[in-house]
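Before surveying the methods themselves, it helps to consider a single example record, giving the amino acid sequence and backbone structure tokens:
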Amino acid sequence: MTDDGFRAAFGAALDRQMRVRGVRRRSLARALGVSEAYVSYVANGKKPVSPTLANRIGAALNLTQEEAEELHRTAAVGRGYKIKP
């Protein structure tokens, strides 16, 4: 899978968590203090996600520990890290 593919996987995970919680990109952007366009870039796999941003997203979406860890794993792979199963 390409870097873009891994980033897209993060975006899919992010969109899934947002959909489950009924959160729109605009609301998430406001909670994170970033533009809606930036959230869109992240969700579409166009921007990598730092661990700090993954933490902020997890907090903004009120993710469980397990959900937050999955988001972090997906973000790390999107940044090129090898994750052991």
